[in-house]
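User: For documentation purposes, I need each entry recorded in a consistent format: the amino acid sequence on its own, followed directly by the corresponding structure tokens. There are two entries in this batch. Please keep commentary to a minimum and don't merge the entries.

Assistant: Recorded as requested. Entry 1:
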Amino acid sequence: MPGAGPLLLQVDEPALGAVLRAEVPTASGFGRHRAVDRPELSEHLEWLFAAATESGAQPWVHSCAAGTPLDLLRGAGARGLSVDASVLVSADHDVLGEALEAGEGVALGLVPAVDPATAPTAQQLTDQVLGWLDRLGLDPDVVGQRLLVTPACGLAGASPEWARRALALCREVAANLT
């Protein structure tokens, strides 16, 4: 599509942390598969991300699970990270800040993925993003083009009404940040 911008390949990796920690159950459920070492995992991801890049796409990784090794993903060649902000730990924030500083993309999942009891406002979400950037020491004007605000995870469990509102909130926050 002419003028559409770069092609992104999103790789969903919600179980990556579990793979590293040997928490993936066997088919019988009586055992666990072996842990995959970080260098081995990195090698396989490097191959995948290199193939995407050689094909003209930017490889992004999405995971809304806690314990996702964001540093490993960046080191293997992911050029964008999509995360659920509610499950991040301190080290994750550092990796995301480094990614933004390096010119890579970050999709920060802040909007509830399912119908919330009380919906956040676009201003509340905007303030949350600006506070996050401030804590990281990043200028919104500098990194704004590489930062997306998204639902925390997929909208498959959301009502159609909330899915529409969630996406509208993402657009409103983006407009507030520009």
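Entry 2:
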Amino acid sequence: MNRKTYDAFAAFRDQRDREIADMLGLDMGNSRRWELKRAIQQRYRAQLPKTGIDAVLRMIDHAVKVAGADHLEFGSDFDGVSGMVPVGMEDVSKYPDLVRGLIDMGSADADIRKIMGENLLRVMHATEEAAEK
């Protein structure tokens, strides 16, 4: 999320969250409550300046330069983002576009593999080994 988008989001976040909480509290028995929640989220998302996958790619590139590819992991947990994602990153089906973008930026294949899952596996294995001791 770029600064302009973040500032717009921050300006209405509390109001949006109150509106969602109020709706969920009033309609506890409504089988459509999650659909209604999503509609509120989408209404607020429409107010944001559009941010594309290029912003995500720039963020990853910056993080690699600052921390190194060994310390990054791109996860797939979209819960809690309230639909406030860059255009082109709406769900995991867009990950090939992310990988293509990293390739086009000149990222090393080894770094892309680390960011897209190898780092997670490395940390999980290290955690298992530590737990066995």
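Summary note for entry 2:
The two ends are 41 Å apart (CA to CA).
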